[in-house]
Amino acid sequence: MCALPAMRVSAGCIDFINEARFNALLAPSRPDPGRVREIIDKSLAKEALSLEETAVLLGAEDPGQIEAIFQAARTLKERVYGNRIVLFAPLYIGNHCVNDCAYCGFKRSNKEAVRRTLRGGELEAQIRALQRAGHKRLILVFGEHPAYDAESIAEAVRTAYRIKEGRGEIRRVNINAAPLDVEGFRAVKAAGIGTYQIFMETYHRATYARLHPAYTRKGDYLYRLDALNRALEAGCDDVGIGALFGLYDWKFEVLGLVAHALHLQERFRVGPHTISFPRIKPASGVCLDDCHDVSDEEFARVVAILRLAVPYTGLILTAREPAALRRRLMAFGVSQIDAGTRLEIGGYTEAGDAQVMEREQFSLGDVRSLDEVIFELVEDGYVPSFCTACYRLGRTGEHFMEFAIPGFIKRFCTPNALTTFKEYLIDYASPRTRAAGERRIAAELAQLPDDPQKAALMRRLEAIETGTARDLYC
Ligand code: SAM
Ligand code: SF4
Predict the structure, then answer these.
(1) pLDDT at 448
(2) What pLDDT shows up at residue 351?
(3) What Rg value do the Cα atoms of the chain yield, rounded?
(4) Which residue stretches of 90-198 are H helix?
(5) What is the pLDDT of residue 394?
(6) How far apart are CA 15 and CA 437, in angstroms?
(7) What is the atom index within ligand 1 of the atom nearest the CA of 242?
(8) Positions in the chain short of pLDDT 70
(9) How far apart are CA 64 and CA 235, in angstroms?
(10) Atom from ligand 2 closest to the CA of residue 361
(11) Residues forming beta bridges with residue 133, ordered by sequence position
């Protein structure tokens, strides 16, 4: 493995994480029930919370207050978000890595890892397999290595858009890769990426320093903290933040995420499109004995409090978590999930259902197929969506627009969710999922007023049914 000298390039980066303030805000105190209610009501009125307000919710330990927070997250989800859930799949492109993050199976010191990069025909085969399963949205994931520079990331993006398998196509390609410089972000933007996602892992400096050796590229805390500022400066107006829960105190990390979202909003007038909150999972060659374990109940509080703190930001809950927990937390305002996920490189064609730890980054909690996940979503009253309309029509800042423009969800999001779901049902669903899905679509249509918009939607659904058209959206 090539061991590059660490790049110390963080001079001039802005540090917006004020640990002393976080610690003061998180100092144990019993929050006043009236204050908790006030903050919940502010969130239900769709206003973003301040750090201080978020800290009050994090301080609530009384079971009644915790239940009130859960209930508010459910209400916000129902009132504001509706019942759409966007589906995507991660595609691990390469696991070479020059870093040595203590928790990750791709770290360079992991001798058990089988190193591999998908290129050419191998990459095409994975994309075709994902399309055959019905996926339209991918996130490409890379280790950090000179071989995965901006141009090679851009080339993988272009390949994903170019390949067409039967009626399938990939309509949105997101990225999870190392931080780039401004030029690099410009190059991947030009390739047509959707969201550029970078997780800070932990916002706590001492923990960050302990887990990311200073001699590695990722050892530079500030360079990573500044990464999405550079992305936005470069014109990537769609960015995703995240923290890896279990590395440090979960309450501190929630404040870190909210501070990050507020910083981007203040500086660029656009907050992050999405927040991810992966929990650390066992990984090959990884032994973490000083983890800050986050229980399922604490994890539920993470999701609910984030929902309330940033009402306009999408929340991503990944297949790291087991199916039953995903099912429960979906109701708290999760907007995107992955499904049919395989982490081993080449796993969409080669390994079937097996999990191959030597080639995986970490182990998965939910290994069901996309079809099984969709069936369950439909049974639970959700509308699975593969919509990519805003991004393709240049309606950027789409997630904000959904809420900012009165009637936007009814006019655009619901119809586009239904047409993309219909395509899935016709082209890829099992008979059981198809039947359940058609019932769901009929129930959704019955709730729409009989107006010209509904008539246009019915025509689009009819065209998809008869096979005369695909990819219809408004
Ligand atoms: N190499 C890039 C980076 O570090 O930003 C991106 C790819 S990395 C494979 C994607 C994410 O996986 C990391 O940001 C980290 O949060 C997560 N991850 C790493 N090890 C994990 C583990 N053992 N359990 C759960 N998530 C993990
Ligand atoms: Fe490499 Fe990313 Fe894993 Fe760190 S988290 S070892 S940078 S792949």
Answers:
(1) 93
(2) 63
(3) 22
(4) 120-133, 150-162, 182-190
(5) 81
(6) 48
(7) 16
(8) 1-9, 351-361, 396-401, 403-406
(9) 45
(10) 3
(11) none
Query: How confident is the model at residue 360, as a pLDDT?
Result: 60
Q: How far apart are CA 318 and CA 277, in angstroms?
A: 8
> What single DSSP character describes residue 321?
S
Q: What is the end-to-end Cα distance of the chain in Å, rounded?
A: 48
- Find out whether 335 and 303 touch, Cβ atoms under 8 Å: no
- Are 245 and 203 within 8 A, CB to CB? no
Ligand 2 within 6 A of CB of 244: no
Rounded distance, CA 3 to CA 340, Å? 34
**Separation of 130 CA from ligand 2 center, angstroms?**
24
Closest listed residue to residue 144, CA positions, set 135, 152, 134? 152
User: In this predicted structure, what is the pLDDT of residue 404?
Assistant: 64
Chain position carrying tokens 């099992």: 430
Q: Which residue in 88, 219, 76 sits closest to 144, CA to CA?
A: 219
DSSP alpha helices (H): ranges in 1-117? 19-26, 33-44, 51-59, 63-76
> For residue 243, what are the β-bridge partners?
201
pLDDT at 399 (0 to 100): 65
Note the pLDDT of residue 397: 64
> What is the separation of C-alpha 150 from the centre of its chain, rounded to a whole number of angstroms?
21
Index of the ligand 2 atom closest to the CA of residue 105: 3
CA atoms within 13 A on the CB side of 296: 11
DSSP-derived 3-state class of residue 153 = helix
Q: Which two tokens stand for residue 116?
A: 């591999």
Task: For ligand 2, atom 4, name the residue with the nearest CA.
Answer: 101
CA distances from 272 to 228, 239, 303 (A): 9, 5, 16
Max distance between CA atoms of the chain, in angstroms, equals 64
pTM of the model: 0.95
Give Cα 28 distance to the centre of its chain: 31
Using a 6 Å cutoff on CB, does residue 104 contact ligand 1? yes
| CB 131 within 8 Å of CB 90 | no
